[in-house]
Design a protein that fits this description.
single chain; alpha/beta; Rossmann fold; 2 domains; six-stranded mixed sheet; five-stranded antiparallel sheet; 11 strands; about 30% helix; binds adenosine-5'-triphosphate; ATP-binding cassette domain-containing protein
Amino acid sequence: MHLDVNIHKTLRSGKRTFELNVKFQSDSQRIVIFGPSGSGKSLTLKAIAGLLQPDEGHIRLDGATLFDSDAGINLPPQSRRVGYLFQDYALFPHLNVRQNIAFGLSRRWFNPSKDTHSEAVDYWLDAFRLQHLAHQLPAEISGGQRQRVALARALVTRPSALLLDEPFAALDPALRVHLHGELDQLQRHLQIPMVLITHDPSDAEVFGDHIVHLRDGAVDDRPLGMAVSDESDLPLTSLLITPR
Ligand SMILES: Nc1ncnc2c1ncn2[C@@H]1O[C@H](COP(=O)(O)OP(=O)(O)OP(=O)(O)O)[C@@H](O)[C@H]1O
């Protein structure tokens, strides 16, 4: 994957202003956007997905221009060929597992189709061992199963990259370790490029072939150990990470 991000956006709420100024390029299959809470990770991922429009700049993915303020290009999210995994998975509580996965294929937001029998849906139900849960609602399955449903929904459209917003944040420590391993294997098996955001050094270590360190809305180019040494909200273990 070649990802080229160079964006600027000013966000205002009341008297507070947040300046997002993010610039990086990567040819890695596994990019981690790493930084403390409030550093601009989610905003950056949303801009790549088309869920947030920058004021200026460009975003290019594998030769396709997703956004370019000078050229007046701003592809809608569904034309960007990226799958997005939300932090809380954002499954529809009233749709069962099969319907949630099929929703990835649907453009009908207000009345998703009840015709959920597509080969692609069955493929991902099988691949994630979810067939026996196809008729369960999200509230009736475990946290790990919910994550697999959300991944299946993101993958069913055959995206050219997967964007993951803190995929392990909501999980207890044991499940976290387990799903780390599952996602690691899944990425290697499918060879799907991914951009994962986290404030957890262990996520960055496992998935960060290329680590983009954000701080106060901008990329921090200092070596990671130095960069975090004055950040009281990051654990000391983050000093153990060596940028690759
Ligand atoms: N719509 C908005 N209007 C104004 N400020 C915003 C808006 N959305 C986000 N911000 C601010 O932008 C900053 C970065 O937000 P962002 O969600 O990208 O942080 P983050 O690095 O993903 O943090 P976390 O790890 O806690 O999710 C925060 O200070 C936030 O308050």
